[in-house]
Each structure stands twice: as structure tokens, then as C-alpha cells.
């Protein structure tokens, strides 16, 4: 199945420049081996990613799996800051193999 990262809005400022350089990592959990990453959007608090990622997984396996979208601020010289994340559980309930379903979810702040 595929997961598409469309956009993020009103991201927090993480850089001294007064902006952020966001990108998203997409994990198919519980194993963290299957993951993808969007491009970095420089100095953008409302990035439009519009990227699609294909996960090769058996339909029945979706019952035990969930998606995690982790939003990071890219930093060239130090560790990238985790801005927050979104988790989508119940993939079989929220997946229709015949049509796209679009979700808008709040990004949960990273624990300090």
C-alpha cells in the first residue's frame, strides 16, 4: 500500500534564522526497518511535500501495523530536532484499497 505526505502547516520556529527546515520520516511500525524520508524544505513553516511512498506488505499484515510520521528540522551542523509526530493506527479500518483517503491530524509535540 502507499502513504502520501501532503503538507504541514504552522510548524514551530526551530532555527535562529526564525524558521525551520522541515522534512518527514515515514515508518511502518512496529518494526522500524521500513522507513522513507521526504526532501528537506528550507526555511519553510508551511511545507508542501506531496510525496508518495510504497510499502510492500501483505494485506493481512496491516492488522498489526501502524504508520508514524515524524517531522524533523534539518540541521547541517548538529543533531536534527524532532518537531513532533503523527501516528495512524487501525490501517485496515482506515484503508480503502480502491480509493485514496486523506487525513488531517495534529502533530504531537516531541517529549522534552
UniProtKB/TrEMBL annotation:
It comes from Timema podura. It comes from the Eukaryota. Keywords: Repeat. The keyword Zinc does not apply. PANTHER family: C2 DOMAIN-CONTAINING PROTEIN, SYNAPTOTAGMIN. The keyword Cell membrane does not apply. This is C2 domain-containing protein. Residues 1-105 form the C2 domain. InterPro entries: C2_dom (IPR000008), C2_domain_sf (IPR035892), Synaptotagmin (IPR001565).
